[in-house]
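Cross-check.
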Amino acid sequence: MSHNINVAGVSVDTRHWIGGRRVASAETFTDHSPIDGQPIGEISRGGPPEAEAAVAAARDAFPAWAATPRAERARILHAVADGVEKRVEELAIVETTDNGALLRSHRRGVMPRVAHNFRFFADWLLQLEHEDFETRGHTNHVSWDPAGPCVLITPWNAPLMLATWKVAPALAAGNTVILKPAEWSPLTASLLADIAAEAGLPAGVLNVVQGYGAEIGDALTSHPDVRRISFTGSVPTAKRIAASAAANLTPLSLELGGKSPLLVFADADLELAVDLAVEQYDNAGQVCLAGTRLLVEESVAEEFTRRFVAKADALRQGDPRDEVTDIGPNIHPRQLEKIDGFVQRAIAEGARAVIGGHRRDGQFYAPTLLTDVAQDSEVVQEEVFGPVLTLQTFADEDEAVRLANDTRFGLAATLATGDPERAERVTAGLVAGTVWVNCFFVRDLQAPFGGSRLSGVGREGGTWSFDFYCDLKNTVTAPKGWKDHG
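Predicted model, tokenized:
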């Protein structure tokens, strides 16, 4: 039986990658393409035995990889980046087939960013240091010790980019990795294993295991040999992971849901504000950072809405492999049901769909804007994760900030204003891990990234990533006490 499937001309191995070799499971699950709903192939469905094997492989490979000099680890990560760049087209078409995001975005932005993830953390590793400091004549030296095997659990909306956002710093820090991709989009993680092996990453340093949620996840997150867990996904799953990790006090990094506001003040460049708002439909609204709550100053709300509708109506929804498509399908029938449920319940409660508010053929949901929504309503308070925005108005700065902060989340916020002093005041009052002023989705890997409240625990990026993936050690040396060894 062949374990390779053909995805738009690209061969993808559907088995796990454990200890430097391919491992099949007795059971499989079917991976479907959201583009047409058709099966792509059967994927090895892991459970506790595969989890145990992957952790054992990572544990055994850890001492040698941790002892590998920084320069050599960096060299191998750059070789991984080289491999990604050579296969951008293959990675792009496989991921588009698997998760339905735009092929043009994968080609031009996402896959080059995957390579950049490896290059950035390889280079950051080489300059990672704190200045020594003194305490009553004693020297303090801070160092980063590799922590050990890391379990990295990644989502389906940007599978490879978000996986390598975790994998690259974990490996750079000298850790070994067990990567568990989302079951709805597992394919590019398998290709990453091939690329890493070809780049010379030693066996067991990167392991990839596939499977359904808790079937394999619980065995990974509760394992006593796991030293770090990083998860991107939903709040309920994060709570389960945290409970599982608690027995071993395994440190967690959690990047969770968002219900981010986009605030538009009357002094803003209205055309820019509209562009920022329409951009929130990117990836069919399946973006955790999306500013899905449009908060617009009353005096410009009518004009803003008019321009927004005109621009949103011009968006082209269809096959994500088509160069002219702006919005592709949603990932899975279950997700489509969830999105439509939010919208229909909101309309039943009195919301008005200015645009959209309905499904289209296949796994497509029409870009939707809901008005006449109450602040305490479900659609305002809970993450929909689809192409659904709400619009509310505010009278002044204080009300804008109050509405913006009035959810359980705090991942991001976007602000459109022409007044720099207002931007400073409002930004200071917002609860969010990232605030964009007159821009959106500009991310530098050296900046801290994470959420407040239920949007997450911890920060990653730059030195913050190494702080998480390492055990920080402070060595204090006395000024005297050395013997003469001359």
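The chain has a mean pLDDT of 96. The two ends are 68 Å apart (CA to CA). Passed to J.P. for a second look.
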